[in-house]
Amino acid sequence: MRNPRKTKADLVYEALQAAILSGNLKEGEHLRQEEIAARWGVSQTPVREAFRRLESEGLVEHAPNRGVIVRGLPWTPPPAPLDVIRRRWEELVRDPESIPGSDFP
Protein backbone atom coordinates (compact mmCIF):
# COMPACT_ATOMS: atom_id res chain seq x y z
CA MET A 1 0.00 0.00 0.00
CA ARG A 2 1.34 3.43 -0.94
CA ASN A 3 1.69 6.19 1.61
CA PRO A 4 -0.90 8.90 1.12
CA ARG A 5 0.56 12.10 -0.21
CA LYS A 6 1.13 14.74 2.44
CA THR A 7 -0.82 17.95 2.22
CA LYS A 8 0.72 21.40 2.50
CA ALA A 9 -0.83 21.66 5.97
CA ASP A 10 0.89 18.38 6.94
CA LEU A 11 4.26 19.69 5.79
CA VAL A 12 3.90 23.01 7.65
CA TYR A 13 2.62 21.22 10.77
CA GLU A 14 5.52 18.74 10.79
CA ALA A 15 8.10 21.48 10.27
CA LEU A 16 6.68 23.64 13.08
CA GLN A 17 6.26 20.67 15.40
CA ALA A 18 9.88 19.60 14.82
CA ALA A 19 11.11 23.17 15.40
CA ILE A 20 9.23 23.40 18.70
CA LEU A 21 10.30 19.95 19.93
CA SER A 22 13.94 20.58 19.01
CA GLY A 23 13.95 23.95 20.74
CA ASN A 24 14.51 25.99 17.58
CA LEU A 25 11.24 27.77 18.34
CA LYS A 26 11.34 28.90 21.96
CA GLU A 27 8.56 29.19 24.49
CA GLY A 28 6.87 32.58 24.23
CA GLU A 29 7.89 33.11 20.60
CA HIS A 30 5.17 34.57 18.35
CA LEU A 31 4.31 32.71 15.17
CA ARG A 32 3.08 34.97 12.41
CA GLN A 33 0.82 33.31 9.91
CA GLU A 34 1.86 35.54 7.00
CA GLU A 35 5.60 34.97 7.60
CA ILE A 36 5.25 31.20 7.84
CA ALA A 37 3.08 31.07 4.71
CA ALA A 38 5.66 33.10 2.78
CA ARG A 39 8.56 31.04 4.09
CA TRP A 40 6.96 27.75 3.02
CA GLY A 41 5.44 29.12 -0.17
CA VAL A 42 1.89 28.22 0.80
CA SER A 43 -1.30 30.15 1.39
CA GLN A 44 -2.37 31.03 4.91
CA THR A 45 -5.02 28.28 5.01
CA PRO A 46 -2.54 25.38 5.52
CA VAL A 47 -0.74 27.47 8.16
CA ARG A 48 -4.00 28.00 10.08
CA GLU A 49 -4.70 24.27 9.91
CA ALA A 50 -1.18 23.51 11.20
CA PHE A 51 -1.71 26.00 14.05
CA ARG A 52 -4.96 24.25 15.03
CA ARG A 53 -3.21 20.87 15.15
CA LEU A 54 -0.34 22.26 17.20
CA GLU A 55 -2.79 23.93 19.57
CA SER A 56 -4.65 20.64 20.07
CA GLU A 57 -1.32 19.10 21.14
CA GLY A 58 -0.63 21.93 23.57
CA LEU A 59 2.48 23.12 21.73
CA VAL A 60 1.05 26.56 20.85
CA GLU A 61 -1.80 28.69 22.05
CA HIS A 62 -3.91 31.30 20.32
CA ALA A 63 -3.94 34.42 22.48
CA PRO A 64 -6.59 37.03 21.63
CA ASN A 65 -5.03 40.16 20.11
CA ARG A 66 -1.58 38.55 20.26
CA GLY A 67 -1.75 35.73 17.74
CA VAL A 68 -0.21 32.29 18.07
CA ILE A 69 2.44 31.83 20.75
CA VAL A 70 4.72 28.85 21.30
CA ARG A 71 3.97 27.18 24.65
CA GLY A 72 7.00 24.92 24.51
CA LEU A 73 7.23 21.31 25.55
CA PRO A 74 4.31 20.12 27.64
CA TRP A 75 6.65 17.62 29.31
CA THR A 76 10.28 17.36 30.31
CA PRO A 77 12.33 14.92 28.24
CA PRO A 78 13.75 11.99 30.23
CA PRO A 79 17.42 12.15 31.20
CA ALA A 80 19.98 10.45 28.98
CA PRO A 81 20.55 6.80 29.96
CA LEU A 82 24.21 7.39 30.85
CA ASP A 83 23.22 10.20 33.23
CA VAL A 84 20.86 7.82 35.01
CA ILE A 85 23.57 5.14 35.28
CA ARG A 86 26.11 7.69 36.54
CA ARG A 87 23.74 8.98 39.23
CA ARG A 88 22.85 5.46 40.33
CA TRP A 89 26.54 4.50 40.51
CA GLU A 90 27.25 7.54 42.69
CA GLU A 91 24.38 6.54 44.99
CA LEU A 92 25.72 2.99 45.26
CA VAL A 93 29.26 4.16 46.03
CA ARG A 94 27.92 6.45 48.78
CA ASP A 95 25.52 3.84 50.20
CA PRO A 96 26.38 0.22 49.31
CA GLU A 97 23.54 -0.95 51.56
CA SER A 98 21.09 0.36 48.98
CA ILE A 99 21.77 -2.72 46.83
CA PRO A 100 19.06 -5.17 47.88
CA GLY A 101 20.34 -8.67 48.70
CA SER A 102 23.98 -7.78 48.04
CA ASP A 103 27.15 -8.51 49.96
CA PHE A 104 28.86 -5.58 48.26
CA PRO A 105 31.78 -4.52 50.53
Automatic annotation (TrEMBL):
Keyword DNA-binding part of the UniProt annotation: yes
The keyword NAD belongs to this UniProt entry's keyword annotation: no
Record keywords: DNA-binding, Transcription, Transcription regulation
All copies of domain HTH gntR-type, residue ranges: 6-73
Highest taxon of the lineage: Bacteria
Pfam families: GntR
Protein name: GntR family transcriptional regulator
